[in-house]
């Protein structure tokens, strides 16, 4: 049976992809909440503010591997 060329690297690649996507997701939330990275601060209690909170917390949880089934 043939093995895929990157089969031995599947776990590190999965971890790198998870960390990078989680950090990017968190950066997007920080941009909405704090005006970081050239964004505007959204007013408290608006729909965009709640989206920023969800993006920031979910991005951090994705980056650290919360519920990662490895």
Short summary:
This protein has 70 residues and is an all-alpha fold.
Q: What characteristics describe this protein?
A:
70 residues; mainly alpha
Explain what this protein looks like in three dimensions.
This protein starts with 9 loop residues before the first helix and ends in a 6-residue tail after the last helix. The protein is built from two helices and no strands. By secondary structure, the chain is mostly helical. Helix 1 runs antiparallel to helix 2. 61% of the residues lie in helices and 0% in strands.
Instruction: State the total count of DSSP E strands.
Output: 0
Q: Assess the beta-strand content as a share of residues.
A: under 5%
Shape: elongated
**Gyration radius from CA atoms, angstroms:** 16 Å
Poorly predicted regions are none
Terminal CA distance: 24 Å
Q: Considering DSSP H and I runs of 4 or more, what fraction of the residues is helical?
A: 55-70%
Instruction: Give the class from helix and strand content and strand pairing.
Output: mainly alpha
Please provide the ordered H/E string of secondary-structure elements: HH
Mean pLDDT across residues: 90
Largest sheet: none
Query: What is the tally of helical segments?
Result: 2
Question: What's the arrangement of secondary structure elements?
Answer:
Blueprint: H1 10-34, H2 47-64
Helix pairs in contact: 1-2
């Amino acid at each position: 049976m043939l093995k895929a060329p990157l089969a031995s690297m599947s776990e590190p690649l999965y971890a790198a992809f998870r960390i990078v996507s989680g950090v990017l997701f968190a950066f997007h939330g920080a941009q909405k909440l704090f005006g970081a990275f050239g964004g505007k601060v959204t007013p408290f209690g608006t729909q965009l503010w709640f989206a920023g909170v969800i993006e920031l917390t979910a991005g951090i949880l994705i980056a650290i591997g919360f519920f990662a089934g490895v």
